[in-house]
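Q: What would this chain look like folded?
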Amino acid sequence: MSQAIGNTALAYARVWHHVDASDRVLGKLAERIAIVLMGKHKPIYDPSVDCGDYVVVTNARNVKVTGKKAQQLVYRHHTMFPGGLKEIQYKDMMRRKPDEIIRKAVSGMLPKNKLRERRLERLRIFSDEDMGVFRHNILKRWEDGTLPPRTD
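A: My prediction, written as structure tokens:
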């Protein structure tokens, strides 16, 4: 008689990743962050299970966009009052809330399902180098913006 052994708690353990956003392209950075938040870099990935890791992003103020996006990109939200559509240019948003730029880019690259908000809660974004108490949790760092190679 054989027994099936399931995944252990260690396989589902969450790891804290640190990303320095200085001089990184917004779209490529957001794509890699979304992969880690979903857990696609793990061999136990399952789309219906939330097995992703935590991501801490620093220097969000120094992220770059390519082409003419700095002049053309507009962020919109609605206040839910009649005529309440608000538009904010990229350069104004970068000055006021640089963390929101990365959060919206990552949010657009996550699957639109019930796990999306829970995954976004594991994303911590700081506009400068200081990350406070989260620096004690960091186990992995991305030097060149890519994930570290897997050692299986």
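DSSP finds five helices and six strands in the chain.
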